[in-house]
Amino acid sequence: MKKKLLAVMLTAAMAVTTLAGCGSGAASDSASTDAGSTEAAADAGSSDAAASTDTSGSGKRVAVAMPTQSSERWINDGANMKTQLEAKGYTVDLQYAEDDVQAQVSQIENMIAAGADCLVIAAIDSGALVNVEEQAKNAGIPIIAYDRLLMDTDAVSYYATFDNKGVGTAIGKYIVENATKNGNKGLEAVSGAGDKMNIELLMGSPDDNNALMLYNGLMEELQPYFDNGTLVCKSGRTSFDDTCILRWSQETAQQNMENYLTGFYSDEDIDIVASAFDGFAYGAKAALEGAGYTADNWPLITGQDAELMAVKNIIGGSQTMSIYKDTRLLAEKCVTMVEAVVNGAQPEINDTEQYNNGKIVVPSYLCTPVAVDVDNYKSIIVDGGYYTEDQLAN
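RESULT FIELD:
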């Protein structure tokens, strides 16, 4: 009753905000439904959930705030979450804010006013959500952080994510083991032959805690080779602050790469693009093509998310690898957390130390990232039912 009264009060207090946000929220719901019906990854993961007869969520409302539909992986995340929760009888309010921080704040305020029983939030900028998270806490609404840690708040109950430092470690290990120069494969062999390799870094958004953790994992693997001169960054931009890209912008990544190629590689080729995201890899590809790179001098390019286009590019040779993150599994783990918090139980967690958000250490479940390239994508992605051969061929 207390929560219902507060919901009514909040609704009245935010009438203007609600009216302003309804259009975007309705559009997001419509778009996310369409996207969910067409995305293969979501379809592949939905059959088991749809077949479930579990109705433990009957009568309960889960609000899911996602950052953007401009990236394929967030469309898949939202669709998987919606499918699995609805299969258990929950009513799901899924909204995308299209990387507009204030739009996400307004959406979450409206979700609280509508009487959500649980909030799942993949933040655009978690620093901007502290006040609205406090509103949810005061209304007795538990919060699950999804893929991106919610910082500086004690309102978050659990965190479902991939091992973010592990993503960086996997990218770094791949570079160490597979970078090739003059027939020598692996940085140890390149170093032993007295060669060096030119590398540039495209790292994630500074307002996303995951991005820094990825960078730290990457640099733990690569730093020894910077130190001994095997890896050379001609731009000199190797710190996180110098290489981070706000809002994971593909356009900025392309711009940065164009500037690097023009400013530092007019008389020498770049050998490695350490990219933290498939979108960055697309931007790097466009910049390299514009600079006249061909198969003969194409660099090793990394990525993250194993988007459909990225896997096609891996098959075609314009991207070397990506980190596969099965969004079906992540959604499943998050759903168990939702069920726990709304029913007073405890979900499975496997990390109680790593994710300190500045207020509390958030109990977390970390899914394992997997590096995929032209040699293993079939066994991991196709055989795993994430994409079909037909999708990858078209």
